[in-house]
Amino acid sequence: MDPATASPLSTWRFSGTLRTYQAEVLDRLPPGGDDPLHIVAPPGSGKTLLGLLLAAREGHRALVLSPTVTIRQQWLRTAAELATDATTVSDAPERLGDLTVLTYQLLSVTGHGSPFDDLARAVWADELVAGGRTEADAETWLAELAVDNPARHRSGIRSRARRLRSRFTRQRPSELARVLHPNAVALIDRLVDAGVRTVVLDECHHLLDHWAIVVAYLAARIRESGTEPKLIGLTATLPSPDDETEFENYSHLLGEVDYEVPTPAVVKEGHLAPYRDHVLFTEPTPAEASFIRRHESLLHDLIRQVLSTPDALSYLEEQLQPSDPPDSAETATERTAESETPLSLLDRAFSTDFPLTRSCALVLREVAPEHPLVAAIPAALLDRCTTDDLLTVLSRFAQTRLLSDPAAVRQWEYVRRSLADFGYALTDRGIRRGRNPIETTLAFSAAKDHAAVEILHRELAGPEGDRIRAVVVTDFVEHGNNRGLAGDAPAGALRTFDLLAVDPVTARLSPVLLTSQNLRVRAEDADDIAAALGDLLGEPVGVADGVGPVSDLQVRAAASGRVVAAVSELIRRGDVRLLVGTRGLLGEGWDCPSVNTLIDLTTVATSSGTQQLRGRTLRLDPAWPEKVAHNWSVVCLIPSHVDLDDGSEAGRLRRRHSHLWGLSADGDGRIVSGLGHALSPPAIEAWERVLDKDPSTSIGDLDAVLRERWPSRSTTRAEWRIGDAYRPQERETIALRRTSRAPLLRAGQTTSAGAVAGFVAGTVATGVLVAVLAVSGVSLAPLLAVALALGGGAVAATASALRMLARSLRDRSRPTEIYRAAAIAVARTLHEAGRIGRIDESAISARPDTSDPTRIRVELGGAAADARTIADAVEELFAPVRTPRFLLRIDAAGLPRIRAIERLADRLSPGRTLLAVPRLIARRRGDAERFRDHWQALIGTCSLHELSGVQGLALLRVARSADSRIDTTEPRARVWG
Question: What is the DSSP string of 389-452?
Fold first, then answer.
């Protein structure tokens, strides 16, 4: 190709070997097209090279925007290796090249506040002009308002800024340009005039507020020139969706993620250190526990007091025994005594709103255990009445009976104000959790500081103890909310460090506390660390006067990049082996490859925050080629003997690990997401028992289960199988349980019913044959004729029974095939219903768990969205029955479809096997019938029942009493590789 006529970047070449995932990205995402490319990949995965190769394919001049000068230099070095002519690469805004690399800051906006505030003020001025003022008068009025009534001025700015935030990516370029510096506008115009059409956005999760405006303006200007811009977004972590407006604008710029390079892929190829996630469970300190028990007693007494009133009991009775709605299809003449029994009315209530009815039943048993309705409620639907059940019923009762009744306004106010003391806000929309003191107590418990000490004790006692370099990360230097923590120092990095500094084991690690305002060490280490830092910084570091076990070091700008880098160097040298700080300082951007142990004491659970923290330990360490990282979460749980429920810590742990991939805690080498890579099934079972307030399991018991299965770092490295070939595929999994009380096929039933049916059919057939022989002149004694008929029946019965038994035993001997067939039946039906695309049935598999043969894992490959849809439906199919439209009866597989035979099977069976038809399939009767047909073709005879009338409710009651086939320890997960 002639360089003189070649399109920009088309002569660039990479002579090395691409990593597996880099090659897959280039293969899966073709060049061209108007849609942006959005790629998520962890640090160390080669995003820079990948971004340049993607840009080079487009054949246009390209611009790379990076967040820092250091990262900009990395792009320039990699580009120089690809370019055949070094002059085509530039980092000078006044000399644009085929590839120009700049920082976002060069295109920054004016002012010190939010650019949206500036734009909002301009919009407000335009509104005033449109209302009849002159421009000068509008500006003067706004300036005077800002002085005379600043609150009203701020309110007007905020309201307009909110509107602008929600639609700024769709603003006209001329409107966006109003908040950009003239130099930035001029530079963007030069870029567009120079032919820049491809824009690579490094660390694109920063595209919020001002940087997002810059990119939106650049894209709009390219669009104005007559060409659709090609945006290529690269990031290690997606921005948090907590701010819905910012996340929506980000998504509008870059769209959905086109490809995500999972961290395990980079580990498998040897570019990140292998790792394992651990959890340490603890319980509140005695002072905190006393506060929680007092809170529990007062809260539960309040709720029980309100729900024990006659009005509340009347409400519970109405919920559990509903009358027919006005539009009920069942007329008065159709109603029977059977349809009005307490049990049938309960069935109706459960069918209308299962969660609320169940909570009402539990609360009724709690506040009025002798009430006649309690005995009518099926025991299978009642377990422990939780705090959430009490709050759910209280909320609905308050809305239904108190808020709507003017005479009950004083009671409404009493309940509302009383709940506010416990951190709950009662509004006309229900109960909303506010600043709950229990959540705060658990999240910032002093017990977590002691847990950090315990973790380091265990790590140092291991075979790699002398290599430990640890970082403990907290949310704050000092937490400002001290509710529920009477007598304790404020939670945060200072409190944690003070404990680590005085423990005789962790003190040997020469711990350092580094925050924006503090550089603190043990008093015994102060002189040595001050001297070492002074040498690295090239300036003296003083030791503040004071007494006690810790000392503050005096250095200019404790949190400056130079100081942070110097402390990191001390960690690399081993002079310091423990660092304590906040996630604001030690999160994204801090790089210390020597760190191999993270103790996460933060409350962060978002995808971006969680992955940023974990990324601190995954860099390869040149001083330890066999490095293995340990990442610890600490969870504080309310003990089993305290009857107060709080799911904040448990929910945070689940959310945190749902964003992460890791080695399965089963020890089978699988790479999974979710709790399964931090907790083994026995540990999850013990954890669930603690949450369910099972007195047989304490938090100490749970910790003992975890310690039994704590593999060494060398074992972890071996399980990763670094360098082995892998499949870069993600699969959804559903964990099911085989249970004798709920088999998918009933051998005894089908065999017995089939034998009786065979006997009857054989006897009749033989009798007819004997009769024909008699008519033909063959003389048979009556007893002989009867004996022949019975003998024929016996032979037929035996043959039928053996056939049924053989089939049932064969099906029971291959349960994985049966469950796989069920998943295929679901997938086929969803595809035919138009819910998912075409499926590859070879991507659907089932296998028994290696550690527990009663557990069967169904794995679903293919397109991620389709796999999730199938998994959701399969999980619903085998989960406890709630309020389905259709039930599938599957316990008569192999039997003739004759009503008399089905009734006989009912008599011979202790119960029916009924599955809820998934909602996506049950929306249309035709889809439900197709599902039945697929089940019959793949597994065996079944029948479809639509739930209506008294008989439908009775059938639903039977279905709800059956055991679930879902493995409750970890029902869903994703598997990679």
Answer: HHHHHHHHHIIIIIIT-GGGHHHHHHHHHHHHTTTEEEETTEEEE-S-HHHHHHHT-HHHHHHH
CB 326: neighbour CB atoms within 10 A? 5
How many Å apart are CA 81 and CA 65, to the nearest integer?
19
Q: What is the pLDDT of residue 654?
A: 92
pLDDT at 170: 55
User: Hey, how many other C-beta atoms are within 10 angstroms of the C-beta on 558?
Assistant: 20
User: 136: burial class by Cβ within 10 Å (0-12, 13-18, 19+)?
Assistant: exposed
DSSP category for residue 974: E
Question: Which sign, positive or negative, has the C-alpha torsion 804, 807, 809, 815?
Answer: negative
Residue 827 token pair: 């997938």
> How many angstroms separate the CA atoms of 373 and 498, rounded?
57
pTM, two decimals, is 0.80
End-to-end CA distance of the chain: 40
Provide the 8-state DSSP code for 512.
E
Structure tokens at 610: 């969680």
Q: What is the pLDDT of residues 944-976, one digit of tens each?
A: 988 876 667 777 777 877 777 888 878 888 999
Residue 497 CA to residue 595 CA, distance in Å, equals 17
- pLDDT of the residue at 782: 66
Residue 732 contacts by C-beta under 8 Å, 6 or more apart in sequence?
Answer: 859, 860, 867, 868, 870, 871, 972, 973, 974, 975
Tens of pLDDT along 109-147?
554 456 667 778 888 888 888 887 888 888 888 888 888
Q: How far apart are CA 83 and CA 361, in angstroms?
A: 72
Angle between helices 815-832 and 925-938 in degrees, nearest 10: 150
How many angstroms separate the CA atoms of 858 and 732, rounded?
A: 8
**Residue of 131, 188, 280 whose CA lies nearest to 678:** 280
Distance CA 896, CA 906 (A): 14
Closest by Cα among 84, 85, 83, 163 to 122: 163
Question: Which of these ranges, 108-112, 359-363, 478-482, 814-818, has the smallest mean pLDDT?
Answer: 108-112
For the chain, helix (H) and strand (E) counts, in that order, are: 37, 27
Q: At what angle do helices 286-307 and 409-420 cross, to 10 degrees?
A: 170
Q: Which residues pair with 471 in a beta bridge?
A: 579, 598
The radius of gyration of the chain's CA atoms, rounded to the nearest angstrom, is 35
Q: Checking phi first, is residue 111 left (phi over 0); if not, alpha (psi -120 to 50) or beta? A: left
Q: Per-residue pLDDT for 691 more than 60? A: yes
Expressed in percent and rounded to 5, the helix, strand and coil fractions of the chain are 50, 15, 35
The first and second tokens of residue 119, run together, are 């734009």
578 - beta bridge partners?
470
**Spatial separation of the C-alpha atoms in residues 951 and 81, rounded to whole Å:** 76
- Three-state DSSP at 101 gives strand
User: Which DSSP state fits 489?
Assistant: P
C-alpha–C-alpha distance, residues 660 and 656, integer Å? 7
Task: Answer for the pair 542, 554: CB distance below 8 angstroms, yes or no.
Answer: yes
Provide the 3-class DSSP secondary structure of residue 356.
Answer: helix
Cα three-residue angle 567-572-574, rounded to 5 degrees = 95
**What pLDDT shows up at residue 563?**
87
Reported as a single tens digit per residue, the pLDDT across 424-475 is: 888 888 888 777 788 889 999 999 999 999 999 999 999 999 999 999 999 9
Q: Are 621 and 596 in contact (CB under 8 A)?
A: yes
**What mean pLDDT, rounded, does the chain reach?**
83
Strands of 943-946's sheet in order across: 914-916, 886-889, 943-946
pLDDT tens sequence across 772-808: 556 566 565 666 656 655 666 566 556 655 555 455 5
Distance (Å) of CA 28 to CA 25, 31, 259: 5, 10, 9
703: CB partners within 8 A, 6+ apart? 280, 281
- Alpha-helical segments (H) within 600-712: 607-614, 648-658, 681-691, 699-708
Measured CA to CA, the distance from residue 769 to residue 796 in angstroms comes to 14
